[in-house]
User: Fold this.
Amino acid sequence: MRAIILAGGYGSRLQPLTLRIPKAQVSVAGEPVLAHLLHMVESANVSKVVVSLNKNQESIEEAFGDGSEFGVDMEYHYEHSESDLDKPGAVGALYQLVQELGPEESFVIGGDNTVYGLDLDRMLTYHRQKQAAATLALYELANPRLVEQYGVTKTDTEGRIVAFQEKPSVKEALSRQASTAVYILSESFLRKSLPEFVQWAKDKAGKADRIGDLWHHFYQNLPLYGFAFSGVWGDTNSVESYLDTHMRVMEHRQIGTVVDPSATVDPAARLVPPVILGSGCQVAAGATVGPFSVLGPGVRVDAGATVIRSILYDGVQVGVKAWVEDSILDQGVQLGENGRVEKQCMLGEGVRLEGGARVLAGSKIWPHASLSSDAVVRGCLKFE
Assistant:
């Protein structure tokens, strides 16, 4: 049994962070997304992992190597494309990979997902007992409004999928059972049904892209089943979903206060768990970090500053009495004295904000921008 991880997406909705690193490498609860997936796969004794990447993602192969650190044997396959314009999409990438490696029964996992509580061994047993063409891991959404962001299913009493909706409105949604981008595909499905769909999609739309279209195409004619689980599932498709996933994973894993031995925390500073401080971090007197905050290596939080429910990448500097809340700051960001980054913001690599600058809720700033003292940013500040 092999696992196929589809990690070739560009992560455009998570820019400017994904201008620097692939979405599969963004940090969730102190570890890259892909690392969380490998933990899940390894726990199911699946030793062979194939990662599908786009042509710009060599950094993933460099970072994860042969997978031995995670107890798996990893190999990498790069999508066939001449330019971004002919990128194959998720289904197309899966088809290319199966054409190269053969139609072996497989776990197929979306590379931007983080999953805890899903027992892959039980899911595989269920899949084989049902003699399913494909089995989808399903997660009950607590917030009904989230159905508009995902594919949702309706199943009968036997677990067979009898309806599939791609991002329905709240009013039209038949359920809150979301497809989590973790699937088991049978050998026969990969050998026969997948090529059939790819050809159909090419004739209709020019290429096969969304996985949801695959399920919608086949649910009436093939035995597709749902396997429901509870625990934690989330993605990194937006600032909001990224931060939400990050916090729920920290809570699920019962992370307390984790401080690297090389970090320096003043006795008069306050760490509120769950919180993670990487190597070489410095937290000054009167500063507050946490809850649900992760500071990457070399982050400095000066006196009286506050960092709440946020992810700060390597080398970020938070000035005296500055404030960061529910936001993501990429490596090398500098926030001056009394600066303020409000909820749901993302600051790209090397952004520099002078004293008193303020970034209003929901804003994004592209890499290496510099803002003068007391500047105010609302929306997207992007430089071509």
